[in-house]
User: What shape does this take?
Amino acid sequence: MNVVSVKIRIGAFFAFAVACSFLSGCVSENYSGVNSSEYVKYSSFEPGKVLLDNNGRHVNAHGAGFIFDGGRYYMFGEHKLKGTLGNKAIVGIHCYSSADLYNWRDEGIALKVSHDPDSPIVVGTILERPKVVYNKKTGKYVMFVHLEKRVGATAKSTKLEDIFKEKPNYKTAQIAIAVSDKITGPYKFLETKRINAGKLPANDADELLKAKKILDEKYPDWKQTYLFTVRNNREKIKGQAFWQDFETGQMSRDFTVFVEDDKAYLITTSEQNSTIHIHELTDDFTDFTGKFVRVLHYGWHEAPAIFKKGGKYYMFTSYCTGWSPNPGRLSVSDSLMGEWKEVGNPCRGEGQKANRTYPAAKADTTFRSQSTYVIPVNGKKDAFIYVGDRWHPDDAIDGRYVFLPIEWENGLPVIKWYDSWDLSIFDK
Ligand code: DGJ
Assistant: This one.
C-alpha cells in the first residue's frame, strides 16, 4: 500500500468515525443508544448501571441538575456523544422528566447549540453542568451552564473534524444564562459572562485589600504571572487570582444554583478553582446583584451540590482531579452566605465490589463518582438523593449516573453504596 492510499484510508476512517459519533449522539429515530433498545420499567435505582429512558436509550444528561415542577421531576444535563468528541457540546442540553425518579421520559434538547460561528454557544463549545430554576415573579425558567469558549485557528469552524482536534483549555470560566417560558424549552440563550466585575465580596474585603498591597509591593508582575501555580507559594500570595479577575469579572466553573424564599444564589468554583464564591442573583434570576461572599478559601473544590435540612446547609464537593474521581467532601454552614466549614468525606462503607468489567468503587473515590446535585424527594420529609457522575471521558456518552440515598450519622449526612435501592429507604 502506498502512502497516498494509506492517507486516504486513514482519512476515510476518521470521517466515518466522526460521522458515527455524531449520529449516535443525535436525538433521532436512528439513534440506537449504548445498550438495549428494550423498554424497561424500573422500580428501583441501580447506581452505575446504564439507565434506559422511555425509548430504551441510555439517559444522556450528564453533570445534571434537577427541578420538581407540576408534579414531575425534570433532569437537565450535558448531551454527550461517543468518544472524546462527546466531551464538547455538539447537540446541546438534554431534558428528561419523571414522575417517580426511576423512569425517565425523553423531553428532547432544551438548549440547542448554534451553527452560527459567531454565536457564544457555537457547536463544539464546552457547556457543562446545566441547572434550571423557576422564577415565580417572571414565570420563566432560567437555565445556567458553565461555558468554555473554543480557541485557536479553527474556533469558528463548524466542521466536526476541526472541533474534534481542538484542545479545551478551560480558561473562559464563564456562566451562560438562558430562559424559557416552558420548562422543557426551547431555552433562549441570553448571555455568557464572568461575574461581578469591579466588586469586592461582602465578607473579606479587608483581607483582600491587604493581599493586594503585598502583591503590589513584593510581586510587581503579579498581574501577568499566575503565582498560584507554584504550589508551595499558595499561602504567600492569597488573593492573587481574585485580583487578576477583579476588573473583568470573577471566574465561574463548576457550580450549582440554590433557590430559597424567592431568592436564588449561584454557588461556583472561582479564583482558578481555589475558592468558592456564592453570588446573589437579581429578582428575575438572570443577573447578579453585586452581593457575594468567598467561602472555603483556598480549599480547591469542584462539583458543588447543596441542600438544606432543618436550619443547616450542606454542600458536597470534590477535589480537583479532572474527570478522575476522588474522595467526596462535605461542608456545613448555618447560613448560605455565612461561614462554611469542611467536615470530611461523607462516604461510608465498603462500596461497590469489583466485577468482570469494573474495578471496585470505594468511599475514597465517592464510589467512582463526582457530585452534581442533591434532589429533595417530593412528599417525603427530609429525604434527599445524592446524584453523581461516573464520567467516561474516552467514551463520553457512556458516563453513568450514581443515585444514592442520603442517610444521617451523628447529625451529618452520609452516603453509602447500594447496588439497588428504592425510595422506601426513607420510610425507615
Ligand atoms: C471536573 C469538572 O467537575 C467537570 O465538570 C469537568 O469540567 C472536568 N473537570 C473536565 O476535566
